[in-house]
Amino acid sequence: MAAYMIFTHKVTDADTLNNDYLPKAVESLGPYAPEICVVDENVEIFEGDSDDTRTVVLKFKDRDEAKRWYSSPEYQAIVNLRLDSVTGARGVLCDSFEG
Fold first, then answer.
1. What pTM, to 2 d.p., does this model score?
2. CA 17, 75, 38, 47: dihedral to nearest 10 degrees?
């Protein structure tokens, strides 16, 4: 069953995030072949209280593949570039709806 990793946060250092982290993050995804569904810096909060400015949604073939990517040495080597460039970082892993 397909699984989605959803990341939300408020960008505090766009230069580092976009120029240092993003190219390396995309490269780290290669072997796991997810679909990059959303990278949006113009999010509109319509419910709840948040000052997030960016949402990223990645679709993997299943939860195990998503976890393999996130815990891979390649991604773990750069994840702090993202975490140090944002506030309020949240990440969730969820399965697709099979109705």
1. 0.93
2. -80
